[in-house]
Design goal:
By secondary structure, the protein is an alpha+beta fold. It contains 19 helices and 21 strands. An eight-stranded mixed β-sheet has the order 3-2-1-4-5-6-10-11, with helices on both faces. A seven-stranded mixed β-sheet has the order 14-13-15-16-12-17-18, covered by helices on one side. It has a two-stranded antiparallel ribbon with strand order 7-19. It binds adenosine-5'-triphosphate and zinc ion. Heterodimer.
Length: about 700
């Protein structure tokens, strides 16, 4: 079979292809395409890893899978299907997470190239770190609807996956969700939390009851403290047989009252709202919420089940509050029945399980009504709650094709041909549908991953953040470590240990109680990732709704606002932005933050940057090109890879002069000087896609 490609690839490349060992990470939409391309191009030594099993919803685009494979390992089935294209291939499949400790640096070192086809940031960050450590070129790819991107990550040559900040996860302060929602999404998040409280896994920070500790309402809370009202919100007071008052949590209470729709409705939408109203400080500048009562809304009680399920099927209809109350009752019944069937007594919220979605849509809308927020249809709420971006099979196929062509260039050590490529929905000014970067953005010297001695400054409210939150939210969620050890530099004392149980006693302590205060330097180390980071603590007192911490790679950003040097209007083109939150991003380094008691919506999928060219900025950018070329030239001059041209930013020779090139995506610098593109996030629109001409030698 492999012989069929004789004469298609240049002889030297074909030899390289035969000899090389490739790792494919992810066997989903892009991964299936990549694997098929690899075997059809003559690669024989391939390993593929995916942790997931095949879902029915994968079949429309993950064509290595068929109906009979549903429920089976993606990696194993992908292997079997790909072998039918080329039985000579030697494919090893792992049904496992790439973050497992079984796949350490020595595992990655085996490969000549790693092709990543993942769908989430945490796994991508991890693969990035492993490839940097192992010094293996990584071809990172992703799609988001009609947009796709492929980029090479190579230690010392290019930016790494973490050189630039990502778009922050949308997160909402706990007090906004619990006390003062002002947008539909706040009510949707609240409704998902309510679902978890009643049926799902109870998660800390997912309280749905009014937050009496809200600093803005503190005065009122103090007044109410005598009545112990706040604890009543988390629980229900019931009188025991001996007349004593016993408090039980909401989940238990809901179960004990047999999920009585009226009782539950009145607690969440009447009693709790009345409690909120007592926090009068909150409503001095806001419109006060208006509680709704079950009996007033539905004096006749619930209508028959048939018409209810009919109503729940009307996904594009804007349900009235009365209808929401009906759907609430109906969903409650179905969910409580479903819960009984679960051995572990837990339901996992799933947008595709109708009662779960109905419940969230109904509750979100009732809450919206109470807070005078626009209600949404079930359809709209589903896309907001489920964070749905359509997967487009053709974008995956194009992206996977470019990935494998980039692998050819990597094997040939033709680094200059490996500039990032963005697939776009519309043709740009140069009639390009596939837009390549004009140059390699050099590694960010302040990157907290690939810099030689990574260090960050952490602005943090040391009086409010506990050690556990520091570990989970800062080190793991924000700085992407897996299992960190932390020592205080000046004393050598261990603040956090990766050994289970060794520092559990520190977890509830505030940083300040551990003497981790302004100016202290922490040495953090993730053994498995072979990653060390110094963290310089800069204490600040966070205000209500303000981030409790912020990662800053550049100390000058610590200056008070008025003293801040004016930021340049245009970003240096050398910064490859994956994020869209403009002003928060600087070329100096990542800056990420987390709001106080935040709630993140599940948008961690970070498949690709949506790029758009800003034609107006081009002229201004042109003048910067020479500076950039110089920077890139300096950066590349320092590299140890011999084959790197020193002027990677300049136009490279066209394919005629490169006998062995098999393909080149027309560089933006082909006909004219490379003009860096300014990228910003853009909405997908419905324009028809056009096809880029790709020259094949
Ligand atoms: N840590 C990980 N280790 C191995 N594979 C992973 C890891 N994280 C994600 N993946 C895999 O990466 C693949 C990404 O593919 P894709 O984006 O098409 O996602 P999907 O889950 O198949 O589709 P969708 O999310 O649209 O339902 C998935 O098959 C997923 O299981
Ligand atoms: Zn980096």
């Amino acid at each position: 079979m492999a012989a069929a490609i004789d004469g298609v690839l240049p002889a030297t490349l074909q030899e390289l292809v035969k000899k090389s060992k490739i790792l494919v990470v992810g066997a989903g939409g892009i991964g299936c395409e990549v694997l098929k391309n690899l075997v059809l191009s003559g690669f024989t030594e391939i390993e593929i890893i995916d942790l997931d099993t095949i879902d029915l919803s994968n079949l429309n685009r993950q064509f290595l899978f068929h109906r009979e494979h549903v429920g089976k390992s993606k990696a194993r089935v992908a292997k079997e299907s790909a072998l039918s294209f080329n039985p000579d291939a030697n494919i090893t499949a792992y049904h496992d997470s790439v973050t497992s400790t079984d796949y350490g640096v020595s595992f990655f070192k085996k490969f000549d190239v790693v092709l990543s086809a993942l769908d989430n940031r945490a796994a991508r960050n991890h693969v990035n770190r492993m490839c940097l450590n192992a010094d293996v070129p990584l071809i990172e790819s992703g799609t988001s609807g009609y947009n796709g991107q492929v980029e090479l990550i190579k230690r010392g040559l290019t930016q790494c996956y973490e050189c630039t900040p990502k778009e922050k996860q949308r997160s909402f302060p706990g007090c906004t969700i619990r006390n003062t929602p002002s947008e539909p999404i706040h009510c949707i998040v609240w409704a998902k939390h309510l679902f978890n409280q009643l049926f799902g896994e109870s998660v800390e920070d997912e309280d749905i009851s009014p937050d009496a500790a809200d600093p803005e309402a503190q005065e009122d809370a103090d007044k109410q403290a005598d009545g112990d009202a706040s604890s009543e919100l988390e629980s229900k007071a019931v009188e025991s047989a001996n007349g004593n008052v016993v408090r039980i949590n909401t989940r238990q209470w809901a179960k004990d009252c047999n999920y009585d729709a009226g009782k539950l409705f009145n607690k969440f939408f009447n009693d709790d709202i009345n409690y909120l109203l007592k926090m009068s400080n909150l409503w001095k500048t806001r419109k006060a919420p208006e509680p709704v009562q079950w009996e007033t809304l539905l004096p006749e009680g619930i209508t028959n089940t048939e018409s209810l399920s009919e109503l729940a099927r009307q996904h594009h209809k804007l349900w009235s509050v009365e209808e929401c109350a009906q759907v609430f009752a109906h969903a409650l019944k179905e969910l409580s029945a479903a819960l009984k069937l679960e051995a572990d007594n837990i339901l996992v919220w799933d947008k595709d399980f109708p009662p779960s979605m109905d419940f969230v849509a109904a509750c979100a809308n009732v809450r919206s009504q109470i807070f005078n927020i626009e209600r949404k249809t079930r359809f709209e709420i589903k896309s907001m709650a489920g964070n749905i971006i359509p997967a487009i099979a053709t974008t995956n196929a194009i992206t996977a094709g470019i990935s494998v062509m980039r692998a050819f260039s990597v094997l040939n050590a033709k680094w200059e041909q490996c500039k990032a490529v963005y697939a776009r929905l519309r043709l740009n000014g140069r009639q390009q549908f596939l837009v390549p970067d004009g140059f390699f953005p050099p590694p960010n010297p302040n990157c907290y991953v690939c810099a030689s001695d990574p260090a960050i400054t952490l602005r943090i409210d040391t009086k409010r953040v506990q050690m556990k939150a520091f570990r989970d939210d800062v080190l793991i969620k924000t700085l992407n470590m897996l299992n960190p050890d932390v020592t205080v530099e000046s004393t050598g004392s261990i603040a956090i240990s990766s050994e289970e149980g060794e520092t559990t006693c520190n977890e509830p302590k505030l940083l300040s109680e551990m003497n981790i205060v302004d100016g202290v330097i922490l040495k953090c180390d993730d053994f498995f990732q072979n990653y060390e980071l110094s963290i310089i603590i800069a204490h600040f007192d966070a205000e209500r709704d303000e981030a409790l911490f912020e990662v800053i790679a550049d100390k000058s950003q610590l200056q008070p606002k008025e003293e801040e040097p004016e930021q340049p209007k245009e970003q240096e083109p050398s910064s490859r932005k994956r994020a869209a939150n403009g002003s928060d991003i600087t070329d100096e380094g990542p800056s990420t933050s987390k709001r106080s008691r935040p709630t993140e919506i599940d948008d961690s999928d970070d498949d690709c940057l949506v790029v758009e060219e800003d034609e107006d900025a081009e002229e201004e950018q042109k003048s910067k090109l020479d500076d950039v070329a110089e920077v890139v030239s300096d950066a590349t001059a320092k590299l140890s890879v011999e084959s790197i041209p020193k002027t990677a930013a300049k136009r490279k020779p066209t394919i005629e002069s490169e006998q062995e090139d098999i393909m080149e995506i027309l560089d933006s610098s082909d006909e004219e000087p490379a003009v860096p593109t300014k990228r910003k996030r853009t909405k997908l629109d419905d324009d028809t896609s056009c096809v880029e001409v790709i020259s094949i030698d």
